[in-house]
User: What shape does this take?
Amino acid sequence: MKENEQNNYISCKNGNPASIDGLVMSERARRIRRGGGMLMHLFLLLITASSAIAVLFIFFYIGRDAIPFFQSRGFVEFFSKNNWYPSSENARFGALAIFYGSGIVALASILIAVPVGVAASVCLSDILSFKARQIAKPIIEILAAIPSVAYGFFALVLLAPMMQNMGGLLLAVVTTVFLAPVTLIVLILFSDIASSKFRPTLRRHMRIALMIGGGVMGIIALFALFSKLAAIQITSGTNALNVSIILAIMALPTIVSVAEDALQAAGSGLREGSYAMGATRAETMIRVVIPAASSGICAAVILGFMRAIGETMVVWMASGNAAQIPQPWYNLLEPVRTLTATIAGDMGEADHITGADRYHVLFAMGLCLLVISFVLNLLSEWAVMRSRKKMRGE
Amino acid sequence: MEIETRKILNKSFTGTGWLSIALLAGALVVFLAPIVVRGMGAFVFRSTVEFRVMQDDIFERGNKDKLEEDLRKARAAREPVYEKLEAFEQELEEMSIVDRLEYRDSYDELRNAVRELLGPAPGEERASLPRNRYGQTRMDRAGHSLHHLLYIETYDYSDPTRMGELIYEPRSQEFEGTALEGLFEYAENNFEAMMRPRTEFYWQFLIDQPVDSNIFGGIWPAILGTFYLTLGAIIFAVPMGVLSAIYLVEYAADNWMVSLLRTFVSTLAGVPSIVFGLFGLAFFINTIGVSESKSVLAGSLTLGLLILPMVIRSSEEAIRAVPMEYKEASLGLGAGKWRTVLTVILPSALPGIITGIIISMGRAAGETAPIIFTAAVSVGRALKPSQVFTNPTPALPWNIYNLATEHEMVDEIRHVQFGMVLTLIVLVLLLNMTAIVLRARISKKLKG
Assistant: This one.
């Protein structure tokens, strides 16, 4: 018996391949393996850290070239004055109008993109069948994949002349086409709520009367709006509205995909509960699912806004590049100028040596963009985290 | 609320959803249709004899004998035009100085219009710029030139409250009663005989060198430049991205440092593309000096950084999608962690990783802002692979911008611009289609 064990031990030591040796490593091999594993771990950590630390590098090197500008010019003029004359003899760097341009363009594009984007994400997550979704999703992916310079080209060469030549009519038609169904829905809702105060026998008649009355008023209002819009003459096709429309299309894929994820994450339990209470799909979505997914949708909106404010080519090509605050402030038909377009456009003229301020002011703008997108990114991450926590049930 | 109203509202809600999807599809069609149609105009179009002459001259392409024959016929048809011009010049000689002055400007304008359409007159010496050596090479442009020859553009300012209105007056009015009277009618009636149109399939647009800042020729240097930049970006971004993804999924503990790393990566994803351009200029070129000034290398590094977060994210997802059982089986058989990653996880995640890489390639190929300060020039020759470390290059996205906004003959070369946009979009969409198909196959496979 003992001899047998001894034998076994020996054969093991001699490295018999098929026996236990494959499973039990010698101390040395184990150490080598663990060391190798640690090394691998370290190596991978190093790689990951360096790709993550790249963002710190970006902050550092943009900041390093931005600081000389603030040192020589201070903060007040740059952020609060509206006089952008970087190349004149007595250079002025009041970039308020440029900040304003970036903001208004991004805001307008978000105003266009969010309703459409949320509706589309609801449709994708809850309305379309699996097959229809297989067709709809690539459409959105293709919209996301098209290069920004192609969008800019479209805005400049096709959309701008169209706006200039028949902008008023175009505006009127588009607005009316969108407002007409909205008016109808509001009308139905309103007449229903208003008539609910009456006796049941009267209710039906009251509702019809209200609808007809409201309908006539709605048509008159729409017609008035139409003729007013149609009379507008757009002096320049390269303006804030043109850019906002294109940016909205570019921001839409981001908004749709993030919002759809949020809606999906709300789970089927919530929906089934609501259906069981007798709610229609619309009621379920609007009053249960969308509120539950609200932080995720917020994240989608923030990401869309980031996309719009960071976009360069479209605004450079089609915004008109006039550093001015439109009169009145909400007039989207005036040309504007944005931070990104200023950086792209002025770098060619800004000489590092002779016009030091002129060169560094562009980095100052880059730094502002960087800070804005950093803050927005943190906000969106926070929103996503909140929604995740919410889904897990607080 | 009444049940009826609720039903209607529910239907309209569904309708709104459908409408928004339809709107997206519509936007895609409205965007793509004109670009595809007009972009094809760079490849398939009605060419004039001037085009064939230009092709023979510059690229030594086409059938010489046929060209001679064509040219002879075209010259015969053009002869009367030049005869009439000569006759008018004779007439001018015999006129009084006052009359001659009266005609001088309008005659010069006419000569220029003829020159624009038909190219230099026979016997004129060879122009130094290629654009002045040939008449209109495309029938659509020739049509414009003919119109310019026949009519004078003037503006009607009679109504001071409105912008001046464009009106066209026949040029023949100016030369009533002179030898030139018949020229306009002749030109209009013998337009085709003078230009000898033919349908051309100019696929060489893709592989030709541009001539005289893209007025003639193709877009090869820009295509090649885009290829170099994309390839470079992938070479930098893929190893870093995939290794980072492996770390984040397989190795990283759930602690504050890793979540900080993740925040950094997502911040990197949110940095505006123009800021990448600034960074590339400030860091890669001005600080560590990978090249003297703009170069493909600096541009590739910048683009690589830009797509890095995309690569990390998509690889992470692909690695996460590998079923736990695979990993457990491998570890259970005694393989180490690294071996498991190399032999089990990576191969099964590979299609997903490749999908992500392909989409990132599309992004890198189409980005303009990061390469403005780091790699792109408007005019340049196609680079040899050995030159990529030191030389800047033309690239499709940048040249589209440049030709559409800064070129001196913006309206005359619309076809080139549209052709470029179409090429870029087809390139990017092909990449994305591949990715979409690949992904569909993966999801099928995972479903079993």
Chain B has two domains: 49-196, 220-447. The two ends of chain B are 48 Å apart (CA to CA). The beta strands of chain B are 44-47, 151-156, 165-170, 198-201, 210-211, 216-217. Chain B touches chain A through 92 residues (CB under 8 Å).
